[in-house]
Amino acid sequence: MSDPLSAKDEDRRCRRCDCAIEAGDLRCAICALPIPEGQQQTDGPLARILRCHTCGAAVRYDIEVQAPRCAFCGSVAHVERPTDPIEQPRRILPFRVSPEDAQAVLRGWLGTLGFFRPDDLATEASVASLRPIWWVAWVFDAHAQISWTADSDAGAGRSAWAPFAGQTRMSFERILVPATRGLTEEECDKLTRHFDLTTAGDAYVGPQDAVCEGFSMRRSAARQTIARAVQAVALTRLGSEIPGKRLRKAKVAVLLEGLTTHRCAMPTYVFAYRYRGKLYRALVHGQDRGCTFGEAPFSLVKIMLVAVGIGVALLALLLFVFTAIALSAN
Predict the structure, then answer these.
(1) CA–CA dist 60, 204 (Å, integer)
(2) What is the pTM for the complete model shown?
(3) Which of the residues 64, 177, 237, 269 has an alpha carbon 20 to 30 A from that of 34?
């Protein structure tokens, strides 16, 4: 079975290190050798994009859009005319949750948030806006030489810690690095775990009013972001490489030996719902309806009742203790 993320452009290689050169690269992703102007490939023609003043998210300009409002936060966006071609996703994950199902999922989620939420939250909340969006990310495969240092309790003798260092080679597959400005890092992390990358295709499959975010930077400019992601994953894997049961001050240095990136678009519903005159934001996964999260109000009455109950209980306990002390003294 073919890998849906393996679709590549014309195979071009770096003249110095033989790393694959991808469309949009101005330099080799491994050795930074500049690519001659005549050999550079772009992802498409120059385009207008709508840039949000509030969160910085961007979407391609569409004449069908009636009001230039951000799909992520609802703020008014302004038109940018960048001098470089806009990097576009090549692999698009389809929506598997319909807008109607997403609204039902949101309503069900509001009803399962626990005791400290208002009892009528699920029934009284009203959807102010529903925006199906594709946010963008790089999915990369890499090979790297990892140099590491750490303190371990192995062989420490009388000391609590002993220094260790070493090198190892690691391979990384399907590491997803968000390139979005419209979602927070925490939101992306929650959503990422539930995407099925095997469903990626080259067409946008989803609601007709869904929009796709633009990449906030080119692949060549994202090299440091990807390197940091490699470092973070390498740190989590080093537990089996370093002797001992306890570690501290673990650090890694990464030398990339091969890097292949895929520009992907990830489907998500961004909701704004209103409860008692105030707006709240929630996200529903575009492929897995079980992944729903966001903002929700608390019930001040319930919180006060619990606080009063705890106070009364503490007061009763203190009275009991003082009474016991007084009786024992007599």
Answers:
(1) 14
(2) 0.73
(3) 177
